[in-house]
Amino acid sequence: MKKFTHLDEKGKATMVDVTAKENTLRQATAQGTVIMRPDTFERIMAGGMEKGDVLGVAKVAGIMAAKHTAELIPLCHPLNITHVEITFNPIAGQHRIDIVAQVQVTGKTGVEMEALVAVTTAALTVYDMCKAVDREMVISDIHLVEKRGGKSGHFVWGKKDAREGSRDQ
Q1: Residue 29 belongs to domain spanning
Q2: What is the pTM of this model?
Q3: Is the per-residue pLDDT at 166 higher than 70?
């Protein structure tokens, strides 16, 4: 059974010591969804929200959030992130927007939290910019899709092979 890495021998919260780790390429992808009313979706796609370019602002917010994750999550290491990409996949028939964040670093620790914070912040920004016309939006299904690099290796969400990672472990 795996142990929690952020607990010391007395069970107290601690920052993981990564001093002895080698710098390696580390990547993470996270995803989330914002579901909204059909008219809200149409206004976003047409650029008709009073606050401006919803997806453009949400993209910048997600990138900024990834870079500031260590300021938000107490035990995260500050990282010199080398790349953040935020993409939006509008699904018209379901009046939803899927948000994907990919984060990359060459460092001693992974970027899973940075990808998750980026997706969450982008989704919250969509909500904030549209709440005047639709307070029933739902932010859902935020999860790590994939991570590469580091000692724990490659993880793909939902994969059953224990060496590849699984949410069922």
Answers
A1: 24-148
A2: 0.88
A3: no
